[in-house]
Design a protein that fits this description.
Blueprint (H helix, E strand, L loop, with lengths): L6 H15 L4 H29 L2 E4 L10 E4 L1 H28 L6 H20 L3 H19 L5 H32 L4 H7 L5 H19 L8 H4 L5 H26 L6 H20 L4 H22 L2 H32 L10 H4 L1 H14 L6 H16 L2 H30 L6 H6 L20 H19 L1 H17 L3 H7 L4
Antiparallel strand pairs: 1-2
Helix pairs in contact: 1-2, 1-4, 2-3, 2-4, 3-4, 3-10, 3-13, 3-19, 4-5, 5-6, 5-10, 6-8, 8-10, 10-12, 10-13, 11-12, 11-17, 12-13, 12-16, 12-17, 13-15, 13-16, 13-19, 13-20, 15-17, 15-19, 16-17
């Protein structure tokens, strides 16, 4: 099984190289991209079953023994996230194929898009299976370089402007991360995560706290944790629909994943849980209040993305195996549901020529299928029973109630309020865009006149037909969101086992034993 681990990163990189060589052959690029991501999905699923049954797999690359060389480490958490990521990347790829065919690739030139897309996937996969901090940094940089290309596709003024902000913020985060790696190496003589966890207790608490805060700061920027989330609502909505969907679903979760490793493995004895709890509460409340004040669907979803990162940080701040397992389930839920919602909004934009809830109306009659594709993930994200959003929030609240402190009770109330406001913001958009008739506007518009000054409220685009493959890709993702509910029991069991094993930790001896077969 250890031979399969490097292929998770190698296959998409090889696919990207082939796509660059054959930049003018669109059909070949599509075939290579689909085959690459499908293969990674299958390999990741095999590895998930293997590590859930027999334990983690560690591989030392290029013959350098652990911990001197580059270590790739796959446990249940890493394998599960690679499976989910590859499924999402494959679905969005199919969506982009339909969009490119219908629009003659004016927004997503294939000579650039498909190689950059596969490189983005390779960077995400590498980050999830990195066994040392420097390789995690390399994974971040691979995905960020690809994201710089994708976010500015089309070279429009708005995309270049927001892309510059995104690039500057990402570079600041990367510099902080690299500085933290240098300080960790200077203090402990290693960047291997297992060795760091074993040696960290030798440092004074003040030194641990400084290293801890610096890593959290770098990862919090990448995860869009308040108050470091200011860049996200302006950066994501301007990109093409497939790019926005991938960014919203996946990129912030890489930052959250890094925080999970930091809190559960590297700094077990250095407790910043109360700080994380307050940051989580602020992220939830400020994010969702921002969503309520928006009139543009992509910006509404971008602010809900920020607010729901708060739930994940909340789960990590509880710091129990049950809470970590619930957080993992919530990450899986949010990756899939948030991506699906952005795909549905991409369809709305094509059908109505706008994503402003002040302009879009009458879609229930005109596009009933689109109404269903938006409604199901919207109520799911809002936490309406019996969907996975409700299950994930309930699991987090249950873990908090088990601790039972007054702070936990405040967090539960904040989480419930955020969920209600999420449902309000998304259902208000549903009501205005789908149920409002073409001639039914005066009274309704008077009630929401305050939204007239919201950013991007007046933006309109050309109405376009929706290719069947775009609808099919979105419908497939909606089906996956429903599967999260139908198979919630087995999935939560896997997530809870992942949480328990993370809490147990892993020693260097175990890592060497597991990585012995190279």
């Amino acid at each position: 099984m250890s031979a399969l681990v490097p292929l998770l990163v190698g296959i998409p990189l090889i696919g990207a190289a082939v796509n660059l060589i054959f930049g003018r052959r669109k059909k070949l690029q599509i075939a290579v991209s689909v085959v690459s991501l499908t293969t990674v999905t299958v390999l990741a699923a095999i590895l998930l079953v293997a590590v859930d049954t027999t334990g983690p797999i560690a591989v030392a690359i290029a013959g350098w023994d652990i911990p001197l060389g580059i270590v790739l480490y796959v446990d249940v958490l890493a394998a599960l996230l690679v499976v989910v990521t590859s499924v999402v990347l494959l679905a969005v790829l199919l969506f982009s194929i339909g969009q490119g065919a219908a629009d003659n690739d004016e927004d997503t030139p294939v000579s650039i898009f498909y190689p950059a897309y596969l490189i983005l996937g390779a960077g995400i996969f590498n980050a999830f299976i990195a066994g040392d901090l420097f390789n995690l940094y390399v994974g971040f940089e691979i995905l960020l370089v690809a994201s710089y290309v994708l976010i500015t596709l089309g070279s429009t003024e708005s995309r270049i402007r927001t892309g510059v902000v995104y690039i500057v913020v990402s570079l600041v985060s990367s510099i902080l991360f690299l500085a933290a790696i240098a300080m960790v190496y200077g203090a402990l003589g290693t960047v291997n995560m297992v060795q760091i966890s074993e040696r960290m207790a030798l440092l004074p608490q003040d030194t641990q706290t400084i290293l801890h805060l610096l890593l959290l700061l770098a990862f919090a920027i990448k995860a869009a944790v308040f108050p470091l989330s200011f860049w996200l609502p302006d950066s994501y909505p301007t990109a093409p629909a497939p790019v926005t969907a991938v960014f919203a679903g996946l990129l912030t979760k890489v930052g959250v994943y890094a925080i999970i490793r930091t809190e559960t493995q590297l700094f077990v004895d250095n407790d910043l849980n109360f700080v994380l709890m307050m940051v989580a509460l602020a992220t939830m409340i400020v994010g969702i209040l921002g969503a309520v004040a928006q009139a543009e669907l992509k910006r509404i979803l971008s602010f809900t993305l920020v607010s729901h990162v708060g739930y994940m940080v909340f789960g990590l701040a509880i710091n129990t195996p049950l809470a970590v397992g619930a957080t993992i389930y919530y990450i899986v839920h949010h990756i899939i549901v948030q991506t699906t919602l952005f795909l549905a909004v991409g369809l709305i934009e094509r059908r109505a020529g706008s994503t402003s809830i002040l302009k879009v109306k009458g879609l229930m009659r005109a596009a009933p299928v689109l109404a269903v594709l938006y409604f199901i993930p919207a109520v799911n994200l809002g936490g309406l029973p019996p969907f996975s959003g409700f299950i994930g929030k309930y699991a987090l609240f249950d873990a908090a109630a088990e601790v039972g402190t007054p702070v936990m009770m405040v967090m539960i109330v904040g989480g419930i309020a955020t969920s209600i406001l999420t449902l309000y913001a998304l259902m208000r958009a549903w009501n205005l865009s789908f149920w409002r008739e073409e001639n039914d506007s005066t009274e309704t518009m008077e009630r929401i006149a305050y939204l007239g000054n919201a950013p991007a409220a007046a933006i309109s685009t050309e109405r376009r037909t929706i290719p069947r493959i775009m609808t099919a890709a979105t419908a497939g993702m909606v089906a996956v969101t429903l599967a999260l509910t139908v198979f919630a029991g087995p999935l939560i069991d896997v997530c809870l086992r992942a949480g328990e094993r993370i809490a147990e930790g892993i020693t260097l001896v175990q890592l060497q034993d597991e990585g012995g077969e190279q």
